Amino acid sequence: MPLHVLTHPLAAHLVTHLRDKTTEPATFRRLTHQLSLLLALKATHDLPTREIPIDTPLEHTAGRVLIKPLVVVPILRAGLGMVETIVDLFPDVSIGYIGLERDHTTAIARSYYCKLPPLEGTRILLVDPMLATGGSAVNALDVIAQRGGQDMHLLNVVASPEGVRAVEKAHPNVPIYAAALDRELDSRKYILPGLGDFGDRLYGT
Ligand code: PRP
Ligand code: URA
């Protein structure tokens, strides 16, 4: 499945301010919400709809409504910063949670929490701002697929080529939506140029 990198100039503007090391957590959170909105719109552009009859104040006509249930699954903790926007856009969305934490020395993700709603027949938006080695995303997609999830879409703010390759290898049918595709990983598996530790910057830790 192709990688979709946002091309809207607003996305580049927002990512640039996110990268800036002087950006404070309050602004960082607002920028994350704005980027999540752009990513969510892109990742749902093909949602199925059904025609329904409707009466406007002036005449009888036809409209279209969404028919596929939506599930958003943030990878804790940084993914939480992307959820509120999606709930605002799609108030009926169900929310699952997957807790994964990278080991600081090995960069391997360790699972510490998982709670998912029914997934069958739904469009699943897995949200995690950073796709670095891809270990966290692949782990989460594995779990979602094991629980019956099929129509999975991955939303990242910043992706690395290594992470994209890892997801494409393990889950070739999962489209990846990213606001930026960065150059590479450093020796500690941080994304370059990147923006540092997303969770720490989001929560001021
Ligand atoms: C960060 C980020 C991703 C993961 C990406 O989370 O939010 O979940 O790293 O790295 P990977 O692609 O190499 O797996 P982290 O483990 O630091 O936890 P946090 O969200 O609690 O800060
Ligand atoms: N997780 C982050 O928060 N930042 C990176 O650069 C890599 C993983």
Automatic annotation (TrEMBL):
Matches recorded under Gene3D superfamilies: 3.40.50.2020
EC number: 2.4.2.9
Cofactor(s), names only, from the UniProt record: Mg(2+)
GO cellular component terms, semicolon-separated: cytoplasm
Top-level class of the enzyme under EC nomenclature: transferase
Catalyses which reaction(s): UMP + diphosphate = 5-phospho-alpha-D-ribose 1-diphosphate + uracil
Phosphoribosyltransferase domain: residues covered: 5-205
GO molecular function: GTP binding; uracil phosphoribosyltransferase activity
Protein family according to the UniProt entry: Belongs to the UPRTase family.
Name of the protein in question: Uracil phosphoribosyltransferase
Organism (species): Nibricoccus aquaticus
